[in-house]
Write a structure and sequence with these properties.
Helices cover about 25% and strands about 20% of the residues. It is of the alpha/beta class. It is globular and about 65 Å long. The chain folds into two domains: about 150 residues, no CATH class; about 150 residues, Rossmann fold. Helix 3 links the parallel strand 7 and strand 8.
Length: about 375
């Protein structure tokens, strides 16, 4: 085991500014989080490894450090090391000695590249996969990307990969595990709610400059107000979405369902947005593409205030991007069919939502910015 790119210290400092509508009872949840400063990430060169269908990597019977988030040993977030190791080692043994799981051997003289890990989604493509790809950008002509077949329907994946025409791909059918002779594995950031400043800016630079064709430092002055609706989501939406949309429209917001936009259109919309709001969820990783001085109002579950492990990660992302951050909290409906409180639907209170929107609009009108 060696490194193609040696681990490097992160660049950039997060200037932790409190939410613009901070209340005394929230302060314990918004202390500066500087754990990112200790992160060192590189690109490992591995030989004769097992890669399961989720991107977990096993070498000599052990999980390779950096193959997935949340496998480190600290109290920063929930640890999945044992659960991932147990599942991957079972799959490896069955693939090697049994016949009930499909597997494939990649040992044809090529070096393969792995950039995905468990919990793949739009959020993880932006915050984990793309930074891993960019880490080895100068070496892509010598690598073959391991490309899970389910990516074929992901426009955000394929619109991005078109920016790397020199990169060859190996399409891996659904649920097929791999034995790989030569693998390059850029390490993923250690915890899912952590953001690394230089990774954020590298991804923005790629997608603004090369996908949109507009430099990040152009003179565009965003003016739009966007409410990111979850009306078509199965869970974690408002119990009275028509009421919320009416309130938003009263305050000059465009109601947008991101599912109806291409990846490029989503980035372009965010670049034009000065005030974004929506229920906390993976789709809000689009905050990545707001312009400094914009404002994000996080519509959140009130229970997050009492859960010490919850990191308010979009607060940290806004701090990196110099986007003002505000909060509005709502109770959830306590449906017995939903075991995890974070997936519960939220109950809007019209007077409180109008109050929070008007505070944020007044804040922007007074010329404040991050």
């Amino acid at each position: 085991m060696s490194y193609l790119i040696a681990p490097r210290p992160v660049k950039g400092i997060i200037d932790h500014l409190p939410p613009v509508n901070m209340r005394p009872e929230w302060r314990h949840r918004f202390r500066p989080d500087n754990a990112y400063r200790d992160v060192r990430l590189g690109a490992r060169q591995l030989s004769n490894v097992f890669v399961n269908h989720y991107g977990l990597v096993m070498a000599n019977g052990m999980l390779v450090q950096g193959c997935a988030p949340n496998i480190g040993f600290s109290g920063y977030d929930e640890n999945f090391h044992y659960r991932h190791w147990r599942k991957a080692v079972e799959q490896m043994l069955v693939c090697r000695f049994g016949k009930s799981l499909p597997s494939k051997r990649l040992d044809d003289g090529r070096t393969y590249l792995l950039i995905h890990s468990p919990w793949f989604s739009y959020y993880f493509w932006i915050s984990e996969c793309l930074p891993r790809l960019l880490m080895v950008r100068e070496h892509l002509k010598d690598l073959v990307l391991i490309y899970p077949q389910n990516w074929e329907g992901k426009t955000f994946v394929n619109e991005t990969l078109k920016l790397f025409p020199e990169l060859r791909i190996e399409v891996v059918p659904k649920d097929v595990h791999l034995f790989v002779k030569d693998l390059v594995m850029p390490e993923v950031k250690p915890w899912t709610p952590m953001f690394i400043p230089d990774q954020i800016h590298q991804v923005r630079s790629l997608l603004f400059n090369e996908l949109l064709g507009h430099a990040m430092d152009s003179t565009v002055v965003p003016t739009g107000r966007v409410y990111m609706s979850r009306a078509v989501a199965a869970r974690r939406r408002f119990t009275d979405e028509p009421l919320v949309e009416h309130i938003m429209q009263d305050h000059g917001f465009e109601v947008v369902q991101m599912e109806n936009l291409s990846f490029t259109e989503q980035i372009g919309l965010m670049r034009q947005t000065s005030f974004l709001t929506g229920i906390t969820g993976a789709g809000l990783i689009n905050i990545h593409f707001l312009t400094p001085g914009s404002l994000f109002l996080d519509l959140s579950n009130r229970d997050y205030l009492t859960k010490d492990f919850y990191k308010f990660h979009y607060f940290k992302l806004c701090n990196i991007l110099k986007v003002d951050y505000a909060l509005a909290f709502f109770d959830h409906e306590c449906s017995p069919d939903v075991s995890f409180y974070g997936m519960q639907n939220l109950i809007p209170v019209e007077s409180e939502l109008r109050r929070d929107l008007e505070f944020c609009l007044d804040f922007k009108n007074m010329g404040h910015h991050g």
